[in-house]
Each structure stands twice: as structure tokens, then as C-alpha cells.
Amino acid sequence: MFDTRMLRGPLDLRGPLCRVTVKALASGLLPLVVALLGAFLLDRFAEIQTPLLLLLLAVCYSALSQVPGAGFVSVLATFGLSIWVLQHPASLPLMVDNDVTTTLYLLAGVSALVLLLGAYRGLRRESSRELEQERRRSAEAQSTLYKVLDRMGPHMFVALMDTEGRIVDVNRPALALSDSGIEALRGRPLPVAGWWDHDPAMVQAMADAVARARLGDSTRFDAIAEVADGRRLHLDCSIHPLPDEDGNVSGIVASAMSVDEREKARRRAQDLLEILETHFDAAPLACISFDNDLRVLRWSNTAARFWGQDADTICGLSASELPFLPAPERARLAEDLGALIAGEADTGSRELSSLGADGRPLEGEWFYSRVTPADDGTYVLCMVNDATARKRAARERDHSERLFRGVFDQAAVGIVLVDDKARLGQSNQAFREMTGYSETEIARLDYCAITDPEDQAQARTLADKFTEHGLDSYSIEQRFKRKDGESIWVKLFVSRLPETDEGRERYIAVAQDIDQRVRAVQNYQRLSEELEAVVAERTRALERTSQRWRERNTALLRLNEASSLLSSSRSAKEVADIAARYVPQIFPGTSGAIYLSGRHPGDILQQSACWGDIPELRRPSLEISDCWALRRGQLHSYAPDQATAPACAHMADSRHASHCLPIMVGGQATGLLTIEYAVQEDTPEDDTAADLTLLRALNEQMGLALANLRLNEDLREQAIRDPLTGLFNRRWFEEEVARLLAHAKRHETPLSLLIMDIDHFKRVNDEHGHTVGDDILCRVARRMQSEMRAGDLAARHGGEEFVIALPGHDSTAAIRVAERLRSVIMSTTANDPDLPGITVSIGIAAYPADGRSYKAIVKHADDALYEAKRRGRNQVHVHGMTVARALPLGSDS
Predict the structure, then answer these.
(1) Euclidean distance between CA atoms 178 and 324, whole angstroms
(2) What are phi and psi of 236, to 5 degrees?
(3) SS3 (DSSP) at 600
(4) Using the 8-state DSSP alphabet, how is residue 598 labeled?
(5) Helix 730-747 crosses helix 685-720 at what angle (to 10 degrees)?
(6) CA proximity to 640, closest of 609, 669, 676, 614
(7) What residues pair up with 478 in beta bridges, in sequence order?
(8) Which of 91, 233, 311, 582 is the most exposed place for a label (fewest CB within 10 A)?
(9) How high is the pLDDT of residue 524?
(10) How far is CA 107 from the centre of its chain?
(11) What pLDDT does 865 receive?
């Protein structure tokens, strides 16, 4: 039998099947053609020699058919029978009516059948030869396959199975895993081959994979095999079907590769990764890692605490999409990271401002480091330090230093710093004027260089006692040697300062110019000695002089006390009261008044304090034009018996002498100190000048105190006010509402909270610009303030959102206020064709109905606001109520 596989598959015109078929047709048809040709020739040409014709035809057929064996014998038999029939036609019973031609055709058919049998034999021989070649190739391929499988290495295991999943053969590494030979493994199903017996789940997984392979599906999974020596191997298994030429499963192959080293490496990598993650999340600095595309890979717990964003939200965002950074800061961050990824630098740092988790600005110090693992591309690790508190402290320190420097430079007394070597350091203007040296020259001098030679021994002795006994301060009256050679008397106060970082001691020396007083005392002593002979005549004058100087000393002490109190004042009223209390002590027998301007200086000054019994000083206010001192910005003195200077309008009816001094703050007159006194003919001019000096000193101290107060007020206003709208900011509002809420709890009174948002404000900014948007915000703020009571609070909550607190209002009263606000704000831009029409949506929540804490109330008010927007905007919605505008417009009481 020939191999039927030769008949399967598509027809190959060059294959063995077509080749054998052509030969068979040639063997069957050519004899018939040749027989018919011979019968025709014999019938037509009787004179032809029959044997010669027979031999000629047989040779032709053999050459044409290329089947010399069966074809030649068949032709000889066929032609011999044909000739015999022609010569003896009557001897054949098949003869029909002695029709020789018909009989010849029948005989030709019989010869064709004989020839077809010969063709069949040739076809069978050809088929056997092709099958033997195919078997030989298959055996060679199988031998090559086994060699390849056996040489794949000790960590590659292969098993061949039949269609039932039974093992047919395994390679040498797989056979080494078993304690039995190949014969014991053959015929056993793979799940029960003995490698998986330690784990029933693994046996089931193998059975399921084999079942899927029998259905034509491949499976890949991880497995653990227990080998002959008791070890367990981690394997990467794959089970695939082996299809035949028709796509049917003719076998199954299972392959496995040992991944023990990979598993160990994976566990080591996992341990290292866990350690890294622990340090990454536990670091006090915020840690962020970026990949090649500048997208966030990792986000530490500290980063989540800094900015209030969890890892699920941030991971995957690019550096230009980080929500807590402003757009310019995001651009700078992306630029820095891009430079590191491009290899332009390995490390870097930058200070970036962002928005912290509590909504406050966070000033961060960002440190970059480029990391390039062996097989994982390049990424950047960022570590961020929160420097907000430190920078705030630095700004406050700079401010304090500037403030101290201002006081230091503007002080009326001389101040200089001295080190532990008695070298002079930083000094103020008064000290430089006192000594006549410049600041550079003073820095090159020591304490002895400015001390009069006659006083150096006394000063050195006192300084040694001060150092040896560890005193904090001491004072001395001595003479300073000026640059021009003149000596002046000073009252010197020396105090110890805290040690420097190097452990060196420092001192501050405050010098008060008492040269006039000392010289006056000296003159007094000299005059006393000269006039001893006429004691009787001059005793009264000397007593008056002595009394005046005692009063002057007392006045200086009172001035010092007043200066100390003024520097600690908390309000302008305190400044005026302190001055009104000490001026009569410093200048006995005087009357006076103090006028101060408001927060924003205008043309009217209000009286803050007065003393004495002169009626003209009781006027409650005066204008700047009423006083020459205010108009000129300098001291104005008036005496009734002198025509040198005109009287001020506010003192026109007075018969007493007066001094008016403007209180200057920052070069601007913010107040007036006026003093009236009775003129005494025997008052020396020196006393008058000294009084004016004391008066100026007191006036300067008042100006410094008011300047400090105004500076503190400006700082406080900047801290609690929104710079655009002038409303309170969110931080101050939250503190005030907490106070109002505590008051409402104590007195059991209601408190309502309104959150108002301008509808479609982003569209206004986009279509009309931010200038128009800012103008609308300011107009809305002014309208809000005009519609509020004195005790109500309004603040800018953020962006186009405002918040209002209504003490004593429940939800019903708050609805009326909100509706009135909504209507009023709608008309804000109604008469201005250059501005777009605006509407607002308002959400209301009240204490105690909607919560007992500020957090709960503001959340409910915010929910009500979003509900009002959801329902179409331009409406009021109360938390927990379904009717948005249920009450008519009316009073908020």
C-alpha cells in the first residue's frame, strides 16, 4: 500500500503525487493509442510485415511512456493478440457480426487495463521511496531536537507529552531532578510526576494547564518544584500544545526555567526597596522623585504633610502640573529638572514658594540630585525643606534691626558700642556730633582716645571695678575730648550686652550731653566764691539760682521717666496722657494741650489731653491753618509784650506767652504740643533756652512713640486686610468668628454665616481682563460694607469668594440680608456700559442649627453655596432648606 499522506494538503504540481499520476496516465493511455494506430495500419496496409510493425510500435511506446518494464510487455501482448484476432476473426466469441474493428477496440481496452495495473505498481514504488525519505528526515530532526534540549543548560527543563498529558520523554536536566529513571517517568501524567507532591494547589495548577493545552491553549505560570535532594526550585513554567499540519493537537510540551537566582535577587531588591521606602517616607524633608518625562514617581509622607496632597493624586503628574506651585514656580522647577535630566548638572537647588496644606504660603528650599541606575534610565530626587518659619523669623529680625537702627540713629543721646578691648564700634549720629569724629574715625579709636586725660584714671578705675565685680551697668560723669580739642561733660551710662558667638563680651555706652549743666554749676560755684564777700546782698539771687538748677535736675529726671513711659505706650491716647502728666512736673506753673490727628492726617486735629486753667486751651479741635507751628512745621513762640512773632489763631484771646511745637512723624506734622505760661521779667534767657531744649526733647520722644505706634498699626493693618478690596482677610476673619461663636455660645444667641461667590467671574477675567475683574471685586466689597451693620464682619475668603458673619441673626434674618445683598450687587455695574453685568450666589448656614463649630458651619454654608450654583446661580440657598428665596426683602433686624 502506498502512503495516503501523499494525497493530503494542497496540490503540488512539482510533487511526487503529480509525478506518479502523469506516469500512470502515460502507461494507460499510450498503449490504447498505439493499439488503435497498429490496427489501423494493419487494416489499411496488409503488405506490412507484422513482426516489424510490432517491434517498431513497442519501441515508440517505451520511449514515450518511460516505463520500459510493464509497458513493453503489455505492448507486445496487446499487439500479438490484435494480430491474431485480425488473422483469425472467427475464433473469438466476442466478435459481433464479424466486426473486426469493434473487437479490436475491446481488446485495446483490455490491454489498457493491464497497463493501468502496471502504472499502479510504479505509483506504489514511488510512494514507498518518498515515505522512506520523510521518515529519515523526521528521525534526523528528532535526534537534533533531543541534542538541543539536552544541551540547553542545567536550568532549562523540558518534558514532551502525548495528547493525554502523559510524559513521553524529558531532557537530561529534567531527568536529573527526579530520583527515578526515564522509564519510570514515561506514561505518567505531568501533575503526578512527583515534582509537585508537596503542594496540592500546584498539582491542580499543573492539571489545569495540561487540560488547557489539550484544548489548544498555552499557559505560563510560576511554580515551585521539590527535587530529589529535597531542595525546592522556583520555576517559570510554560505548557504549550503541539499542533499537526491540520491544526489538531498532536502532543504537548512543558518547559520550565529555574529562576532561583532571579527570585533571590528579587527578594534582595525588595528588602532594599523596603528600606529605601522607610527612609523615603520617614525623612524630615519632603522627598519627591521624577522620571525622565519629569513625572512624579514617588511622593513621601512628609510631602503629603507639607502640601496636603496624597500620593494617589500627585503621582503621574508632570512638574508643570503640580497644583500647589504657582505657574511661574512650576516653570522654574521644570527648567531645573530638565537641565538635570539632560545631564547639564548632577545637583542643584532653588527656593520656590508654594501653597501649604493649611492654605498658607510655604517657602521651600528645593535640593535636586540626578540618579542614574544601571538599567532603569535616569530620574531626579528632590528633597524640600520647609524654610517658612526661618525666613519669617529672618524677616522679623531684619525688621527689628531696622527699627532698632532707626531708634539708635534718631536717639537724642549719644550711643556707641564697645568691645572687651575698649575699642569703639558702631555709633549713632548724636554721638558723632558730640565727639566731632566721623563713623570711620570712631571705628579706629578706643575708649581712652575720647576721654579727657584728666579723667582717664578715674574712668579706668571704675571700669576695672565694673569688670571684676561682674556688675551689669555703671554710670559716671566725665569729660569727652572732642576732635577739635575741646572737652565736653557727659553723663555716661555703660551696660553689659550678651556675649557674642565667639564668647567675647560687649558693652553699650550711652552718653548724655550735660556740658551746659556742668558748666553752669561751675559758673555757679565760681560766682559763689567771688560773691562770698557780699553774701548778704546776693544770698537771695544765689538761692533762686540754686533752686532753678534743682528744678532743672528734677525736670531732667522727669523727662527721662517720661521718655521711658512714652517708649512703652500702646496707643496715641496713652502718649498724650503721659505727656500731659509730666509736662506740668517738668515745667511747673504752665498750662497746655495736646492735639493729635486721626489715622489718616487731615486738616482737623482733635484734642487728646490738656492741663491747667486757661480757658482758651479747652477747645476740642483746631485746624492746621489755626497754628503757625503746624503751618511752618517748626517751633513757634509768642510773647504778648513782643512783636517779633504773631499769635496763633487758636491763642488769639490769650494774654500769656506760648510755645507751639508740631509733633513730627516721618516728616509730617501729626500733632501739636502747646504750652502757655506767665512771663516773669527776672527769668534768665538761659533758663528759657533750657526749657525749650527740654520741651523739644519731650516733643521728639512723643514723635518717636507715635511713629512706633503708627508703624505697628500699619503692620497690623497689612496683616489683617486684603490689599485689593480693603476687607479683612481670611485668617483674621476665622479668629474673629471664633470669638463671636464663643460669645454666641455663652449668651445663647444665633450666628449666621454667608458665603458669597461672584457668578462666572472667570469668564469676566477672560473676556475683560484682570483689571476689570479687580474693579468688580472692589465694587462688590464696597457694596457689601455699605449694607452691613456695625457689628457684622465681612472678609475676602479667596478669589471671587466673600464671607460674612451676622451676629444675632438666625437663618430667616440672614436670608433677608442675603437677598438684599444679592439685589444691590446686581446693580453694581448696571449703569456702567463698559463693565459686564454681575450676579452672585449665596450659601447660608447658622449656629446652632447647622453646627456648633466654625468648621461645621462654614462647610454647610459652602455646601449651600454649591447648591445655589447647581440650581442656576444668582440665588440664595440655606443649608437644609429647599426654598432658595423664601422671604421678601426687608430689614435684617
Answers:
(1) 62
(2) -105, 100
(3) coil
(4) -
(5) 90
(6) 676
(7) 490
(8) 91
(9) 82
(10) 106
(11) 92
**Cα separation, 700 vs 706, whole angstroms:** 10
Q: Interior CA angle at 730 toward 729 and 734, to 5°?
A: 125
Specify the long-range contacts of residues 510-514, CB closer than 8 Å, at least 24 apart: 510/413, 510/414, 510/415, 511/413, 511/414, 511/415, 511/416, 511/431, 511/434, 511/480, 512/413, 512/414, 513/413, 513/414, 513/434, 513/488, 513/489, 514/477, 514/489, 514/490
β partners of residue 226: 232
Task: Give the residues of the chain that fall short of pLDDT 70.
Answer: 1-127, 138-155, 179, 184, 192, 197, 228-230, 260-266, 268-277, 279, 373-377, 500-503, 536-538, 541-542, 599-603, 642-644, 679-687, 830, 882-893
Angle at the Cα of 418 from the Cα atoms of 415 and 422, rounded to 5 degrees: 135
Closest to 347 measured CA to CA, from 337, 355, 357: 337
Contact 841, 757 (CB under 8 A): yes
pLDDT at residue 73, as a whole number:
55
Torsion of Cα atoms, 542 then 547 then 550 then 551, to 10°: -140
- Measured in Å, how far apart are the chain's first and last C-alpha atoms? 117
**From CA 787, how far away is CA 892, in angstroms rounded?**
10
Please give, one letter per residue, the 3-state secondary structure of 25-62.
HHHHHHHHHHHHHHHHHHHHCCCCCHHHHHHHHHHHHH
Taking the C-alpha atoms of residue 858 and residue 177, their distance in angstroms, rounded to an integer, is 72
DSSP one-letter string for 323-346: TTS-HHHHHHHHHHHHHHHTTS-S
Exposed, middle or buried by CB within 10 Å (0-12, 13-18, 19+), for 645? Answer: exposed
**661 touches 697 (CB < 8 A):** no
The answer to whether residues 671 and 662 touch, using CB atoms and an 8 Å cutoff, is yes
Q: How many CB atoms lie within 10 A of CB 756?
A: 26
Displacement of CA 814 from its chain's centroid (Å) = 39
Helices 515-530/535-567 angle, 10° precision: 170
Q: List Cα–Cα distances, 66 to 22, 23, 129, in angstroms.
A: 11, 8, 18
For residue 268 the three cell numbers come to 534582595
Find the angle CA(747)-CA(748)-CA(754) to the nearest 5 degrees. Answer: 110
Cell of 708: 512706633
Claim: this prediction has a pTM higher than 0.70: no
How many Cβ atoms from other residues are within 10 Å of residue 574's Cβ? Answer: 16
Residues 6+ apart with CB under 8 A from 274: none
H or E stretch covering 434: helix 429-435
Angle ∠(85,88,90) on CA atoms, nearest 5: 100
Residues 210, 830: Cα–Cα separation, whole Å: 81
DSSP 739-774: HHHHHHHHHT--EEEEEEEETTHHHHHHHH-HHHHH
Single-letter amino acid code for the residue at 848: P
Q: How much is the pLDDT for 838? A: 87
Q: Provide φ and ψ at 725, rounded to 5°.
A: -95, -15
CA distance linking residue 638 with residue 677, whole number of Å: 11
User: 407 vs 67, 401, 497, CA distance in Å?
Assistant: 133, 10, 18
**Residue whose C-alpha cell is 439685589:** 823
The whole-angstrom separation of Cα 727 and Cα 709 is: 22
Q: How many helices (H) and strands (E) does the chain have?
A: 25, 26
Partner residues linked to 795 by β-bridges:
728, 803
SS3 of residue 646 by DSSP: coil
